[in-house]
Amino acid sequence: MAKPDRDADFTAYAGARQAWLRRVAYLLCGDWHRADDLVQTTITKLYTHWNRASRADNVDGYARRTLVNTYLAEQRSGWAKWTVLHRFGPGSSDPEPAGAADLDAGVGAALDVDLRAALSRLPPRQRATVVLRYYCDLSVEQTAQLMGCSTGNVKSQSARGLATLRNLLDPNPIPVMEGPR
């Protein structure tokens, strides 16, 4: 009788955390349909390893790590380069599905679109680092552990990602006055 309990526990967890996983996946890949695919793959992997995942100290951390690893593996595989995303009309972006508005809560629509566009221009590891550090609010150490790299790597990826975002969002920054060299 352990299997029905296992399935019920997994179903309860997946149902409760699916929207959160989808938001994180969207921030990683920048496309709602692809985010749905990433979440589906992540949930499938979680189900396969639910005995181990459910015993983890932090099940959300386990799920987040599975999601990020799935995203990064997909980026390395070249699948993303071969996928053609069709837009709806000239110059338009993907339609936002119902329920996506909670991602935009408290952020102006124009700024949100600019931020999403800028985020999509970051390389995959920088993007993952920025999303984990500043959207998921993980520490440098937690991000390093999740991504399987050093804390120095997380710091440099974060700094480069933020610098790129600043340049993309403000193409005419005010120059900083430097002292004599």
From TrEMBL:
In terms of SUPFAM superfamilies, this protein maps to: Sigma2 domain of RNA polymerase sigma factors, Sigma3 and sigma4 domains of RNA polymerase sigma factors
Transcription among keywords: yes
The segment(s) forming the RNA polymerase sigma-70 region domain are 18-77
Its keywords, alphabetically, are:
DNA-binding, Sigma factor, Transcription, Transcription regulation
Q: Could you tell me which residue ranges the RNA polymerase sigma factor 70 region 4 type domain spans? A: 114-165
In its keyword annotation, does this UniProt entry include Nucleotide-binding?
Answer: no
| NCBIfam families registered for this protein in UniProt | SigE-fam_strep, sigma70-ECF
> Sorted alphabetically, which PANTHER family does this protein's record hold?
ECF RNA POLYMERASE SIGMA FACTOR SIGM, RNA POLYMERASE ECF-TYPE SIGMA FACTO
Similarity comment text for this entry:
Belongs to the sigma-70 factor family. ECF subfamily.
What this protein is called in its record is SigE family RNA polymerase sigma factor
